[in-house]
Amino acid sequence: MSMPRMPEGIGAHIRRRADPRASNPDQPHAVELILARQLASGLAVPVLLVDARGDTLFYNEPAEAIFGRAFDEIDALPFEQRAAMLAPRGSDGQPLPVEQLPGMLAMRERRPAHAEFYLHGLDGVLRAIEATAIPVESAGGHVLGTMVVMWEGHMAHPE
Amino acid sequence: MRLTVWGSRGSLASAGPETIRYGGNTPCVQIEGADGSVLVLDAGTGIRRAGLALAGDRRPIHVLLTHLHMDHVQGLGFFRPLFEPGREVHIWGPPSTTQDLRARLTRYLSPPLFPVRIRDLTSHPELHDVHADPWSVGGFNITAAGVVHPGPTVGYRIEEAGATIAYVPDHEPALGGPLSAPQWLSGYGLARDVDILLHDGQYTDEEYRQRVGWGHSSISHALQVADLSQARDLVLIHHDPDHTDDQIDDLVENAGRARRTGTVRGAREGMVLEV
Fold first, then answer.
1. Which residue out of B183, B188, B225, B228 would a mutagenesis test of the A interface target, given it has the greatest number of A Cβ atoms within 10 Å?
2. Which has the least CB within 10 A, A30, A60, A133, B98?
């Protein structure tokens, strides 16, 4: 199954501590991610769930307004197209390196992270976003992924 | 491998004439490998009799705990090999980010709940957190993975010479969402394609509706897990303490009719399974 994925390389330092089972795409998800997905699916705030490699595992129905596409529809788009369309930008309007996104910060530094930025939805609309990410770790201390809660932000449009 | 069920009851030991056939002791299953290696799954009250069977025998013993709820550890202090000087005993349990296994087990194995402390066990058992990757004990290849149940809880998948069993006695997969996509099914990686799946079968559908979040399966859920995982032989374990032998007979018979492929049995004390 193909899903959006962060560009290669950004999780290199994370992988040392990532759940070793995450390296096998045929493996079922860890129970912490299963429960996080179920929680997200029942929440009214937009939530994105990403695994330790940067792959999008799930986003809930409220997040569809931010990403501009229903989660079940995104598999039809190739990764390159999705990455190009999402193209995050910082508050100055300049391209934002993905390693500075809160989800990646949360996994790398193993702490909550918050940021304001712009994101192109898959419908082509640029939106101001606020996002808070928390790392999802197993009881064994492995980084399994991150749960990102998002809001539409209030920054002025950069264009 | 050869499995012996020493305890099949869930939640609370429940001895009485109405539970005499399936048994009243809480979970404990012994597994013996072709090379004589011994695993003991959980330390419910059933482990006392397992200990009598293993006493005086010099083989190392690996006790694999799924979690530390009382019905899974209460028999530990009555496990005879733990009191045999020089006996090699390893106790494995789920990891925690807050306290190690010794500290967590000490909550029970110390006064005022129990008169004997872990440090007083004359076998001086070694305690281990389960590994994230599979590991070997004798001829067994063991995999542990977290499953949906309150608190840190794992299930086990054990393989030996092409035979495979999974042990998931406490499991509420329905809390993880619809039981449909295997990749998102708690316990799937353990149960996939096993010869025998020992799985939580505590509740009827009606009982489950009143006990959502308590950490257990309805028998319907156990069937769905077994079917999705393509487990060949489903052995229901962790019987509700209020279920009588006759009720369990009926539940198992109905479950057998509902199973799409494969068989269904009810775990009972003294049951021996060969794989």
1. B183
2. B98
pLDDT level of residue A122 (50, 70, 90 thresholds): confident
Q: pLDDT band at A1, cuts 50/70/90?
A: very low
Over residues A135-149, the mean pLDDT reads 93
Tokens, residue B33: 């490998």
List pLDDT tens digits, range B53-99: 999 999 999 999 999 999 999 999 999 999 999 999 999 999 988 88
A28, A139, A141 ranked by CB distance to B183: nearest? A28
What is the 3-class SS of chain B, one letter each residue?
CEEEEEECECCCCCCCHHHCCCCCCCCEEEEECCCCCEEEECCCCCHHHHHHHHCCCCCCEEEECCCCCHHHHCCHHHCHHHHCCCCCEEEEECCCCCCCHHHHHHCCCCCCCCCCCHHHCCCCCEEEECCCCCEEECCEEEEEEECCCCCCCEEEEEEECCEEEEEECCCCHHHHCCCCCHHHCCCHHHHCCCCEEEEECCECHHHHHHCCCCCCCEHHHHHHHHHHHCCCEEEEECECCCCCHHHHHHHHHHHHHHCCCCEEEECCCCCEEEC
Contacting residues of B for A139, CB less than 8 Å apart = 94-97, 146, 152
Residue owning tokens 């393989």: B159
Measure the CA–CA gap between A76 and A85, rounded to whole angstroms. 14
pLDDT band at A153 (very low <50, low <70, confident <90, very high): confident
Least confident piece of the model among A40-54, A77-91, B227-241 = A77-91
* Residue numbers in B near A32 (CB within 8 A): 146
For every residue of A102-141, DSSP letters joined together read HHHHHHHHTS-EEEEEEEE-TTS-EEEEEEEEEEEE-TTS
A142 Cβ under 8 Å from any chain B Cβ = yes
Complex ipTM = 0.80
Token digits for B73? 């550890």
CB-CB under 8 Å, A41 with B183? no
